[in-house]
Write a structure and sequence with these properties.
10 helices, alpha/beta, 10 strands, TIM Barrel, globular, 7-stranded parallel sheet, 343 residues, 3-stranded mixed sheet
């Protein structure tokens, strides 16, 4: 009951990359960088296991950014001439690479860290990839001229890598689609279909993570403007409930998402965000168990997977480590608290 995991990313140690940044510069290059990425991956697998998490990730230690890490292995993208672009409907500016020719994978994208992680844990292993719609929103298109067409082109490449990750022994493949919370109509119209296309043919568990973003200032300012209730999920969940995706990761604790929207995901596993990534305050096990209790009103207990609201990448390393412990301890408390009540 209540298997725990984080959304995906964890802070990079200071010897691997700049800290507290979403697009950090690496501290090394070549073989030394590869070795440092491997060390950081193993360190975080151990930390997740020690904290007591049931499902572990590579902590995204081998990619600079959750979208651009994938794009670096794609032909047809010009990384030499980045341009400034407003992303997530102009919520913030970023320097992004440009699509300049038909897209094709250069080869495997994440084989190194996925195999490394698989070789060093016996727990369930989750691996994250950016979703097609979110990639389209994080790159400048100079070739396709149509967001939907571009999204399906990326979905093909994601599908190739996802099938290969499954062959590497990954148990859960999760696509990150924060853009679903920004372009809700497009998400329902074609974003979910593009996502299904990326997950086509997978026999492992498939998941999608939809959040209100990392705990950075631009996102926190945006959330201030969303009003008393955040109802973005209401437009996207019905399409997801009908989709082939198995599991949905959503934001809950310290958010203004009405919890009853979780009921729209009937038939799906729900990864409920019980850890706030926009605050350095460590949740108590009681707070985590309380959030699980609220979610149990709308999600059957065998479908409830406690999770973090989003990735922990920009956080302080020690804060992140303690939040992992809070997540595991809170889920354990919830198992004791709700086992009898629902038996
Ligand atoms: Zn997120």
């Amino acid at each position: 009951m209540f298997p725990t995991s984080i959304a995906g990313s964890l802070p990079k140690p200071g010897w691997l990359a700049e800290t507290h940044k979403l697009w950090p510069q690496w501290r090394a290059e070549g073989d030394a960088l590869r070795e440092a990425k491997a060390d950081a991956t193993l360190l975080w697998i151990k930390a997740q296991e020690d904290a007591g998490l049931d499902i572990v990730t590579d902590g995204e230690q081998s990619r600079q950014h959750f979208v651009h890490g994938f794009l670096e292995q794609v032909d047809g993208i010009d990384f030499q001439h980045k341009v400034e672009m407003g992303i997530r409907n102009d919520r913030y500016k970023a320097m992004v690479p440009q699509v300049v020719a038909p897209l094709k994978l250069k080869g495997r994208v994440h084989a190194f860290e996925a195999r490394l992680a698989r070789a060093h844990t016996t727990r369930k292993l989750k691996f994250t990839l950016p979703g097609p719609m979110t990639i389209v929103d994080t790159v400048a298109d100079r070739h396709y001229g149509d967001r939907q067409q571009l999204a399906f082109a990326f979905a093909e490449l994601l599908n190739q890598e996802a099938l290969a990750l499954q062959a590497d022994g990954v148990d859960i493949i999760q696509f990150d689609e924060p853009a679903f919370n920004v372009y809700m109509k497009d998400a329902a119209d074609w974003g979910v279909r593009a996502l299904e296309s990326a997950a086509r043919g997978l026999a492992c568990t498939t998941a999608v993570h939809i959040c209100y973003g990392y705990g950075i200032k631009a996102n926190n300012d945006w959330k201030e403007k969303l009003g008393e209730e955040w109802r973005q999920y209401e437009q996207v969940f019905p399409a997801l409930a009908k989709s082939s995706i198995d599991r949905v990761s959503l934001e809950c604790y310290h958010s203004l998402v009405p919890p009853d929207l979780m009921a729209l995901l009937e038939g799906k596993d729900v990864m409920v965000g019980v850890i706030d990534v926009a605050s350095d305050v460590i949740e108590t096990p009681e707070q985590v168990a309380d959030t699980i209790g609220h979610a149990l009103q709308f999600v059957p207990r065998d479908r409830l997977f406690p999770c973090s609201n989003c990735g922990l990448a920009p956080m302080d390393r020690e804060v992140a480590r303690r939040k992992l412990e809070a997540l595991a301890q809170g889920a354990e408390l919830a198992r004791r608290r709700f086992a009898a009540a629902h038996a």
